[in-house]
Amino acid sequence: MRRLKLSSFKGLDKFHAALANDRLPDVVRWMKSKKKSQLLMEEVRKHIFDLGPPTPPGRRTGRKNYHQRLIYHLAEIQTTLDTMRDIEFYMGRFPYSEAKVARHRHLMFHVQAFLNELYILQERLLQLLAFIERQHRKDARLDHIKDVCAVLKNFVTDSMKKGVAIRGRHVHQWRLSDNDHDRLIGMSLYMMTPSGSVQRAFKVYYDSEYKRIRRSRREWVASGIGVSQELVDAYFDELFNLVFDDKGRLVYPSQLKF
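Above: the chain sequence. Below: its structure as tokens.
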């Protein structure tokens, strides 16, 4: 197994790759041992078939815990970005031909879900900074780490404040809506009138407007995903220089034991 070439990556992917490289020697040692390889496959089997809790491979140390928790934080951030992309995909399809789910409600549901994921992304980015600060409480670099984390906190909150504010009003004040969505609701009510000709006329108009509005909302979400990815990559480019040395090696907090 070879180390990943960090110059081939940027941002979040580079951070992932550097963490993988940091544990690569341990993985290689495990794979070279027939006994340990069998233990590893047994743990995989237990996990897949739900055969009980995992058995720790060895003594836990402060450094192992730190590395693993970094991976957990990165996984949360990556999952949030993946979920945003899932939402954008779901918005382009309405698979419920017989269900009692109006298309405009389906569309608004996913817009609201996207805003929630945007808020989750902000929280996960800020939580990672808080974790790194806490882990370095007794480290000689603490003042520098606090300064960099403060800059990154401001960068995240300032960059995301508009979307997070919209989500906040949706949750704490009144449900998210807009003129286009309200118009679709009005058209759907006319489609319930007793007159067949009125129903047919408004159905044609509803279908046309729904497709236009869905395309517009999907483009808005896609744009938000692109901006979020750029923000995350810029964030991790700066964080990388704080957590890794100039050779891409993880710099552990000084108080953590091997």
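The longest helix spans residues 196-243.
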